[in-house]
Amino acid sequence: MSTTTSGTATTAELARLLFTSCLQESEAPSPAQVRAAIDERLCACGGDGAACAAAVAQEAGDHPDGYAARMRWALRTVATCLEAERVQMERSLT
Fold first, then answer.
1. Which domain of life is it from (predicted)?
2. Where are the domains of the chain?
3. Could you write out the three-class secondary structure of the chain?
């Protein structure tokens, strides 16, 4: 999963950004909402991967009981959104 990229970011990197966003699984966010949340977090981290990793570590420390479930959701959501974008792009080319 971490080898899938969007631009230059891997699925795992995008999931870390989504993990630290305000979006919740219960909201069933659209791909556009996911993209916006990732973009917002990327700007908040100043594009610095270390700052993003620190935010994930902080959240994991603050909420260890929910860390694994939220990260699984973030990874699954990013992968699903990337696939939806890929399919949409392929359709627009045909």
1. Bacteria
2. 5-93
3. CCCCEECCEEHHHHHHHHHCCCCCHHHCCCHHHHHHHHHHHHHHCCCCHHHHHHHHHHHHHHCHHHHHHHHHHHHHHHHHHHHHHHHHHHHHHC
pLDDT tens digits, 45-89 = 888 888 888 988 998 899 899 999 999 999 999 999 988 888 878
Q: What are phi and psi of 21, to 5 degrees?
A: -85, 175
Closest-CA residue to 16 (of 66, 64, 54, 62): 54
Of the pLDDT bands very low, low, confident and very high (cuts 50, 70, 90), residue 5 is very low
Tokens 């045909």 sit at which residue?
94
On whether the CB atoms of residues 74 and 7 are closer than 8 A, the answer is no
